[in-house]
Amino acid sequence: MSIEVNNISYSIKDLQILKDVSLTIKKNEVLSLLGPNGSGKSTLLKIISGDINPKSGSVLFDNINLDNINIIDRARIRSVMSQSQDIIYDFSVKEVIEMGWLEGKEFITEKFDNALKKVGMECEISHLFDKSFNQLSGGEKRKVHFARTLIQMYNKDFETKSRYIMLDEPTANLDISHELQLINILKKKTLEGFGIFIILHDLNLAYHFSDKVAFIKEGKICAFGNPDEVFKEKILTKIYGLDVSFDNSTKKISYY
């Protein structure tokens, strides 16, 4: 079971954003996507999630073309945490999280707390439930959206179908403690059968927590494989345009 991204290209007028991109997102794995700003990372995530259509190529969820999956079924197969998710109206934190609930309003009172326990976020956000979302700090907002993204995958078919979670820079605005907590929750989700696709900028975080890593530059995949295969000084230096060193003894990446 996997998401197969096959020869995806995307452009806006004469500007080529993605060029013949192919990769595989597997169940039970974390695939991290890294690359310079403007290299096409967020656009690729939007195409894989079905928010926008590619100019050419295909996306297959467990061998089914994404074009043939209706919006309701997409919501049960994959959840998405975008980079920017501002909310205009004055919703409470609990109301924002409930936006990811797929089982219907009649089940919220009975199952909502159990669902939060299952996704591992109850202690982190339950004290914020009655607060206005728009009054939260940037880091608190990220945690609320993360909980909404996870709880979307809690539904009646939770144990029986493939599930994929897609996140665009979810650790932005988080301190190092909550950053590690978020990543560890995602790693636990892979043990439950989830496939995780995550955009990161932190090279060290990606190296230590990813099962697979893809590097993209100027809309093209430059390297794809397990961390030890792609975290090479030549590859990193070429992608980022500055001297990057990798210490094999400490497994640390340095660039200053």
General description of the model:
It contains 10 helices and 12 strands. The protein is α/β, with parallel strands linked by helices and 256 residues long. It has a 6-stranded mixed sheet, with helices on both faces. A 4-stranded antiparallel sheet has the order 2-1-4-5, covered by helices on one side.
Main CATH class: Alpha Beta
Helix content: 25-40%
Strand order of the largest sheet: 6-7-8-3-9-10
* Distance between the first and last residues' Cα: 40 Å
List the SSEs and their pairings.
Blueprint: E1 2-12, E2 15-26, E3 30-34, H1 41-49, E4 56-61, E5 64-65, H2 71-77, E6 78-81, H3 93-98, H4 108-119, H5 122-125, H6 138-151, E7 163-168, H7 176-191, E8 194-199, H8 203-209, E9 212-217, E10 220-225, H9 227-230, H10 233-240, E11 245-247, E12 252-254
Parallel strand pairs: 3-8, 3-9, 6-7, 7-8
Antiparallel strand pairs: 1-2, 1-4, 4-5, 9-10, 11-12
Keyword list:
256 residues; 6-stranded mixed beta sheet
Short recap of the structure:
The protein has helices at 41-49, 71-77, 93-98, 108-119, 122-125, 138-151, 176-191, 203-209, 227-230, 233-240; strands spanning 2-12, 15-26, 30-34, 56-61, 64-65, 78-81, 163-168, 194-199, 212-217, 220-225, 245-247, 252-254.
